[in-house]
Amino acid sequence: xxxxxxxxxxxxxxxxxxxxxxxxxxxxxxxxxxxxxxxxxxxxxxxxxxxxxxxxxxxxxxxxxxxxxxxxxxxxxxxxxxxxxxxxxxxxxxxxxxxxxxxxxxxxxxxxxxxxxxxxxxxxxxxxxxxxxxxxxxxxxxxxxxxxxxxxxxxxxxxxxxxxxxxxxxxxxxxxxxxxxxxxxxxxxxxxxxxxxxxxxxxxxxxxxxx
Length: 211
Description:
This protein has helices spanning 2-14, 69-74, 95-104, 106-132, 135-150, 165-172, 176-188, 204-208, and strands at residues 16-20, 25-27, 35-41, 44-49, 55-61, 66-67, 81-84, 88-94, 152-154, 157-161, 193-195, 198-201. The protein has 211 residues and is an alpha+beta fold. The longest helix has 27 residues, at 106-132. GO terms for molecular function: DNA binding; DNA-binding transcription factor activity.
């Protein structure tokens, strides 16, 4: 962790920090890969174009995460769109500077490799989930993942705030209708309570039994 923090400090030294506002587009699919972002504050979501004009959420990323490094390394256009889910800030590191740091700083190279490996594993797991798991199982797993990553412990359970039902559907690769049916079932079983942009898991262990 100390090594990764040192690498991020190097990127901050060579990059430029800029604030972003909620719903701001930070990177656009098809655009030139001319810089890498290091998220300092806030949360961003990565959107992939699906069939029939649909969009899938590849993931949400927060402070300390690199964004856009693969396109810079491979010198190809952006493969996804990155939108700010909340307000925050990011360090923008120009492509030439980032590639130079990868060649001259072993720790930067190690951070990039570990980031790419982790995201490849996540993509593999997501693909297997869509192929072999039903929608209720995928919904339960996604809610549990969000609870682990950014859930807030309250007297009534673990609260997940700021995530819409549309984003839940985009994250699990399912239609809004099937996700709504899964949530309705979980509500009837007392496993989940929902309100606008909020999910409450009274007992995450009970929900985990569904997966």
